[in-house]
Specification:
Number of domains of chain A: 3
Strand order of the largest sheet of chain A: 1-9-8-7-6-2-3
Helix content of chain A: 40-55%
Number of strands of chain A: 13
Oligomer: homodimer
Strand content of chain A: 5-15%
């Protein structure tokens, strides 16, 4: 039996690993959400040096059980309400096992035909089940791919946008005009928009401000203001080329006015990327696609993270482009050294996924998504989204019933933003103390490690975010959380 | 039982998935290496639309077995000799199962402490077991991370190099000097070097030519020529800032003269990235570290892919930098919106891996590497490397014994480059027919789909590459391959 590929070992200890996973899940609720450890704790638990001799699977699994798993932040815990939940599923875990087992990176079609084609199919399935614009189907002008992360996808859209603009202007990389490029992002968009522009060395990076919008009861950009920023920049000799907007911002779940932003982008020849990393999962529900997904027909690229509300685990960042020709070209798609040349690439209109990203290697992530979509079906994916919204509405009802707390903005899918406005004695907390008060409240809530929420701040207004998403979260957890929040409030 | 997180399902079908993996491995040898399919084949086997209702795991696993797995290019097949092998291991599969199960992205320390710290520890272990420069230990100036791919790591090194140079020059992104930046890569370096410079919009990109070097019996750059290129560029007003060199090139396994390249880079303030994606795995063997790893002390960053010779599967791209401060800064490390702020990040000298890459989300890949390193130990990893080299030497002996074939260059680890020089009648093939002849030979060898090699071309010289790396490849496979090659040669 091959020492490195021992099938008896695989079956025996793979089975034990499954048991460990199952057991950990079953006990998750009894554990803390955030572990009680200080930086550097793990160095004290593990040897300083790698072992010279091989060790047994028993020992490794046992250390995993006692030293690693209890010290994860438990994103699957029913009381995890921070960031955005990333719910898992048995289908994702099982599909994932097979996806790595044969380690067949599909950088070109021939490097692994089924790896490439299943990604083609899954990307198209997603376009269909979410009623995304037809241009995102691979048979049309665009297409989708599963890339390393949403952040990197946003970066690629910036890159492609700059490439397209330079082509349009007929300039090359030595042209001083390229120092005049200006990119925009709506200011509640994820920090990865800002980071992407930085890493792309775009000299002018503009955060389009947000204001309270009474009509939508949330923060939003003023499109007229955005248009004026763009026009001012043009009159100053700058070259607008890209805009990053968001459907479902992290700070408050707000939805940028995509149709109006798209109009400005179109008029001035800017690439519009819409990041729907979190909220995009809800597009599988037709009424939510309607409510949250206006204007997608006009965007140049779109990101949706199937790791967030769609149970597919990390490595599920969907990136759709409307014009795959210009996108692949922007990444230098024609770089094919001899060892990558093959007749299939030369003779066919196929996808070589190496032309969609930096890096050749690619995990077979589509297999995992294919498991998830098939196992639950479109209806199961819909139900998952709707169930989490129901939980959120329940929390919302508790906030609105309380006179000490208030919603900061309108609920967006499974996100609630709220803050405390009256102290324990029922007195209104003065405006200048509100932020401090709520920061302390969050600290108290998280102190025990049994609940995990994060805070947010918009235009100087601080508040708490609550977003449930894990499958084992029930109304009773929300009741307990609310009781805990009220108790913490009494301590302030 | 939760429909999305059904533990009974997980155990039952997870075990069936393990069985399917084991069974597929056991039958791998009977199957083709490259499937007999045409582009578009999978669309004909799968439904055009995603299912409305959920399906059973039985059906999904069965389709995986009959439609997906047989149509992968079988990178784990004993007769896979193309690109560079990416051998797997039972430890990698088992560790990987647990790494996704709880989906705890460690973008900041607090977002999952054990996720972050295990990556710290594994990166340090690798520095120690490969005797890499001390500066790459996290307690020192640098450190390591597992990034999405080698290609993206190379790109980040280009980015950091430009950032460092701009800082040194005291210029910002609007300065026309930034249009004078010139990057270099040794011309046998992976195409991802070229792509990285392109995506970084570097206006001047220079491939340093290679020549036959009789002393090392392989192709190599002439460092004097490189120095002159740099000096010529400087006298033309350009600003050299980065060089990509390689230990173990894909075309022929050659090793760039790192110490001498580093001298030039140091003199002119260029960031030197060394890509040892493939050959770096061999650094675990002290004599190979000695033979292949000269000059590493002087490099600014280094990439090693543990998916290649180190049995860890895709998602094992190690990236080491000598100066993590400048590296993290270059990626805008200080971008921390409210929802990412936390006292651990503020008060401690910890790693927030979001500052090492574009994209927040990060799979728990270090767990898989930790399983592999522990299960086989340093000695097991060494044995794996040495075993594959032994197989290669056996093939080498067959080539050298034959008068029809010749080695193109000296064997490099487990890579042999060879070509046919005499036709079936024993006549020397004329120089101007050699490439054509060998291209046809490769076509014939691969025609049956039962063997897979790729070709390479350097300075107009075409040849075949042979590189064994899978655990089930034995001398008898190599005998059969050689017999097959000789039979193909007779058909030419």
């Amino acid at each position: 039996m091959n020492p490195y590929y021992n099938i008896d070992d695989l079956l025996k200890y793979g089975n034990q690993a499954l048991d460990l996973i199952g057991e950990t899940y079953q006990n998750l609720e009894k554990e803390r959400v955030v572990p009680d450890v200080e930086p550097g704790f793990l160095r004290q638990l593990l040897p300083e040096n790698p072992p010279q001799k091989g060790e047994s699977f028993e020992d490794i699994l046992n250390d995993t059980k006692t030293k690693i798993l209890p010290n994860l932040t438990q994103w699957q815990h029913p009381n995890f309400y921070a960031y955005f939940p990333c719910n898992m599923s048995s289908a994702a875990i099982i599909g994932d096992m097979i996806s790595l087992a044969f380690n067949s990176p599909g950088f070109t079609w021939i490097a692994s035909p089924a790896t490439t084609e299943l990604e083609n199919i899954v990307a198209d399935w997603i376009v269909k089940m979410m009623n995304l614009p037809e241009k995102f189907l691979l048979k049309n002008s665009g297409g989708g791919a599963i890339l390393a992360s949403i952040g990197i996808s946003i970066f690629y859209s910036i890159h492609a946008g700059k490439y397209r603009k330079m082509k349009e202007l007929g300039i090359d990389l030595t042209d001083p005009k390229s120092l005049k490029f200006v990119g925009y992002y709506t200011s509640l968009s994820h920090s990865e928009n800002q980071r992407g522009l930085l890493v792309k060395d775009i000299p002018y990076r503009r955060a389009v401000p947000v204001h309270w919008n009474e009509k939508i009861k949330n923060f939003s950009i003023d499109v007229q203001e955005f248009r004026e920023m763009v026009e001012k920049d043009i009159s100053d000799g700058l070259i607008p080329f890209w805009c990053g907007a968001t459907i479902g911002t992290t700070p408050c779940g707000s939805v940028d006015p995509i149709p109006e932003i798209a109009e400005v982008c179109k008029k001035y020849g800017m690439w519009l990327n819409v990041d729907a990393a979190w909220a995009g999962g809800a597009f599988v529900v037709p009424e939510l696609r309607q409510e949250y997904g206006a204007g997608l027909e006009e965007v140049d690229s779109l990101t949706i993270n199937f790791a967030k509300g769609t149970m597919s685990g990390n490595g599920s960042a969907l990136f759709f482009v409307g014009d795959k020709k210009v996108y692949n070209e922007s990444l230098g798609g024609k770089i094919n050294p001899e060892y990558l040349k093959n007749k299939f690439t030369e003779e066919n209109d196929i996808t070589d996924y190496k032309d969609w990203q930096l890096g050749l290697g690619k995990r077979f992530n589509s297999l995992r998504l294919w498991f998830v979509i098939r196992k639950y079906g479109v209806e199961g994916l819909q139900k998952n989204i709707l169930d989490k919204i129901e939980l959120t509405k329940y929390f919302e009802s508790l906030v609105t019933k309380s006179d000490k707390f208030t919603l900061v903005c309108k609920r967006s899918l499974n996100l609630i933003c709220f803050r405390m406005i009256k102290d324990k004695d029922g007195n209104i907390i003065p405006e200048d103390k509100l932020n401090e008060f709520n920061r302390k409240l969050l600290e108290l809530i998280n102190l025990s490690g049994h609940y995990y929420l994060v805070g947010s701040e918009i235009n100087g207004l601080y508040f708490l975010r609550f977003t449930p998403g894990n499958h084992n979260t029930l109304n009773q957890h929300i009741d307990a959380l609310w009781k805990h929040i009220e108790e913490c409030a009494l301590k302030l």
